């Protein structure tokens, strides 16, 4: 998680806001609360501070699975079925198993 921070410089005081958020890295676990801690504490009494909380929302990554087209000769074994995974994070270890639904030859033939 990258740090969230901001330094605000005033004419008399150098007030720093250190932002943090609740831990978590999933879409389902959010939104995550963001909070700020101001310093130095000795000068904060000079200000009428409004500290409004906010939320961090983690959005879904667009990803896709695309099977590769394949061909075979009637009566021969199926070729190895493959495809491409796109957009997935390597750390998630996503894999795909490709298969096809077998259709009986009589279901494929139209006899008028």
Description of the molecule:
By secondary structure, the protein is mostly beta strands. Helices cover 4% and strands 29% of the residues. The protein is built from 1 helix and 6 strands. The chain has a 4-stranded antiparallel β-sheet, with no helix packed on it. Strands 5-6 form a two-stranded antiparallel ribbon. A hairpin with a 4-residue loop joins strand 1 (4-9) and strand 2 (14-21). The radius of gyration is 28 Å and the shape is rod-shaped.
* Tally of DSSP helical segments: 1
> For the terminal residues, how far apart are their CA atoms?
65 Å
For the largest beta-sheet, the strand count, sense and barrel status come to: 4 strands, antiparallel
Question: Radius of gyration, rounded?
Answer: 28 Å
- Count of DSSP E strands? 6
Order of helices and strands: EEEEEEH
Low-pLDDT stretches: none
Proportion of helical residues: under 10%
Strand order of the largest sheet: 1-2-3-4
Secondary structural class? mainly beta
Strand content: 25-35%
Mean pLDDT, rounded to whole units?
Answer: 83
